[in-house]
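Please, does this match?
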Amino acid sequence: MRVLAFRHVPHEHLGRIATALEAAAVEYEYVDLAAGGPPTNNEEAAGLIFMGGPMSVNDDLDYIHAEIDILRRAIGRGTPVLGVCLGAQLVAKAMGARAYRNPVKEIGWAHVTLTEAARSDRLFHGLNGCEDVFHWHGETFDLPSGAELLASSERCRHQAFRFGERVYGLQFHPEVTPQMIAEWCREDEGCGELAEAMGPMDPWHNESRLAEISATVFGRWCGIVRGLL
């Protein structure tokens, strides 16, 4: 059993998602269309994951168009899909929703509040009503038609959603490790987004709880991929 992970830049990789996949004995393979990598046969994959990146879903780029087409086909045939940050925006746009600049950038640690729908959701049930998680994004999206909103934050309403039983989009970053956060900060040195951070960028802040959240959410998504949930 194998899932494909669409990666847009090397430092925005699977992180803790890989840990969950390995624990569930689900193989994974990166697809690097953004770096000019070759396409792969995604129709035989047990699930598709779309990671983050500094580009916009509205950029007129061949690989963005290709990924949106791949998503539309995958959602249509019922393949389990997980989108994180840019990946969530790709999922939303593939489903006909609008993606656009958020009024403010959301960078750093901040709370998300789970909705009533999250209480019975297969991935989010049992989590605290409010969780301190990591964010790094400047864009957002409208909720796709027919989707359930699962989480919101003070600065960005659409933080997590589910469509049907197998399609999830997460705007925040439960997959990050402290090492990933430190690397993202180094990568940003020439971009200056850190100047707009919401607070201190301590990579180890709330690390143990974020590890628990990611193990729960991504472990359950692996259960969907394996047909156990």
Remarks:
- The domain at 2-225 is CATH 3.40.50.880 (Rossmann fold).
